[in-house]
């Protein structure tokens, strides 16, 4: 019997991204962290399971090395006592971790996924969740990404990348929702 409520998966809401912005990288969804805080509040209020995913860099210049300031979690998304923290070293929260085993042991079938970045760790985790048979809800206003240069030198805005990632995942890998949709789903129970 699946868990009666979904689990919240909070991916890589770490200070490295603030450092990237301070260094001049441009992102979309400036209110994403506030929406993540809304989701955390709703899940905590309803006693629903929360899994915090933290990225640990492995390359010498990574912003996510545990010895660097970027590894720390942003205050708005900090875990509370009793909430699970899982450290990953690749894009997917399922690779090299016990996330899947924990979810299955808890009979959790639905995952609400938020965090950073939309087209990297959030997308990879969402794709794997769908492939593993979980019902994934990707929260569009609680994730963000950055502008990027493509292989041919083309500039792609964070908004375009975010929208394309959501389009790629929609239907096949995930149900795309807003944070308000998720909060309202608790009120409907």
Automatic annotation (TrEMBL):
<dbReference type="Pfam" id="PF00857">
    <property type="entry name" value="Isochorismatase"/>
</dbReference>
<dbReference type="InterPro" id="IPR036380">
    <property type="entry name" value="Isochorismatase-like_sf"/>
</dbReference>
<dbReference type="InterPro" id="IPR050272">
    <property type="entry name" value="Isochorismatase-like_hydrls"/>
</dbReference>
<keyword id="KW-0378">Hydrolase</keyword>
<dbReference type="GO" id="GO:0016787">
    <property type="term" value="F:hydrolase activity"/>
</dbReference>
<feature type="domain" description="Isochorismatase-like">
    <location>
        <begin position="7"/>
        <end position="181"/>
    </location>
</feature>
<dbReference type="InterPro" id="IPR000868">
    <property type="entry name" value="Isochorismatase-like_dom"/>
</dbReference>
<protein>
    <submittedName>
        <fullName>Cysteine hydrolase</fullName>
    </submittedName>
</protein>
